[in-house]
Design goal:
Blueprint lengths: L1 H44 L5 E3 L4 H4 L4 E9 L4 E7 L7 E11 L8 E14 L9 H5 L5 H5 L4 E2 L6 E2 L6 H22 L20 E5 L2 E7 L10 E7 L2 E9 L5 H6 L2 H4 L9 H5 L20 H16 L1 H7 L4
Parallel strand pairs: 6-7
Antiparallel strand pairs: 1-2, 2-3, 3-4, 4-5, 8-9, 9-10, 10-11
């Protein structure tokens, strides 16, 4: 009986000790995480910086650029946002902190957004060349307040947005730009309560109800149906994107109004070879900011412009939304 009592008592002490250790470890991890966040704020603002955390509403947090993860309203009225940008090197990501300069108060409708105060690196995934991104690249974000207030975004390609590229690190530049863009999108949606725009890039030109995506590891098999581009009718296309690059492209149903216009389409558009191996930046160079042909490739101007344009827009949709759809698992 004494032996049983001893063993029971010992077991009870062990359970209590294990629970205490578990609580201490959890507390230590929480304190460590909070300490890192405090240091991030202090790194931007200096010692003594303080603020309150704002719950990030998942309804507004994710966009084609990336996702906002944490946000703080600081005592000086500015906002600090932690966000992750998609479309980095080897399909990786970059996470950083973006400080937005503001005056007034969102609660009483007097908040005024002035621009970007600072951008600070937090971490990255699969970014082998991110060491090539220097301080002047991050400083560039603070030099375009007027354009940012007009709703323009940052881009590593010359696509009509704010061009920002670090030499030798184009993919990492894209992910960093996208992280800043993701922070801006969340701020506009949740804090400024601006009307939500398109969820998917180029969705204006796509029939989303008839479009689908089969997602597997780093691979998306799209069946895209475009909207009619009068006089051209809707096109149906099968496009595969793997690791941010188009690996297969096929027109299933050609929307040209007649065989004449089908024959006028460039051969490399009809057989898809124009798009095979192309990244988002390459395809976007073929389009203007408004989604028209940019004239960068004169061989696309063959007398069947509307048909060709629908095919280019479908490729742009597939590439521009790759990370978002890969993350969500489907087109929602």
């Amino acid at each position: 009986m004494k032996k049983i009592l001893f063993e029971t008592t010992a077991l009870l002490y062990f359970v209590i000790a294990a629970a205490a250790i578990s609580i201490l470890c959890a507390t230590a991890l929480r304190v460590d995480r909070e300490e890192r966040e405090i240091r991030a704020v202090e790194f931007i603002y200096g010692a003594g910086a303080d603020g309150i955390e704002i719950p990030v509403d998942k309804t507004f947090s994710e966009s084609a650029y990336g996702a906002a993860e944490q946000a703080y309203l600081l005592k000086d009225g500015n906002y600090l946002i932690k966000s992750t940008g998609y479309n980095g090197f080897k399909n990786g990501t970059v996470t950083l902190w973006t400080a937005l300069a503001c005056t007034g108060n969102a609660a009483d409708g007097t908040l005024i957004f002035h621009g970007i105060k600072n951008v600070t690196m937090d971490s990255s995934r699969k970014q082998s060349y991110i060491f090539r991104v220097k301080n002047d690249f991050y400083s560039e974000f603070t030099l375009h307040d007027e354009e940012v207030l007009q709703g323009k975004r940052f881009s590593a390609s010359r696509d009509g947005n704010i061009y920002n590229l670090a030499a030798g690190a184009s993919h990492s530049s894209a992910a960093i730009n996208n992280a800043v863009n993701a922070a801006l999108v969340w701020f506009e949606r949740q804090i400024l309560q601006k009307e939500q725009g398109e969820k998917y890039a180029f969705e204006t030109f796509i029939d989303l109800e008839k479009t689908s995506a089969l997602v597997s590891e780093n691979n998306i098999e799209y069946r895209i149906v475009t909207k009619p581009n009068s006089p051209a009718r809707a096109f149906t296309l099968s496009i595969r994107v793997k690791d941010c690059v188009i690996t297969a492209y096929e027109i299933i149903e050609n929307g040209s109004t007649s065989d004449k216009y089908t024959s006028l389409m460039p051969q490399n558009v009809k057989d898809g070879t124009l798009f095979i191996g192309k990244s988002r930046e390459s395809v976007l160079s073929l389009l203007t900011e408004d989604g028209a042909l940019s004239g960068a490739d004169k061989t696309l101007e063959t007398g069947a412009t509307r048909s060709t344009l629908s095919c280019v827009r479908a490729a742009a949709f597939a590439l521009s939304n790759y990370e978002l759809i890969l993350h969500e698992g489907e087109i929602k």
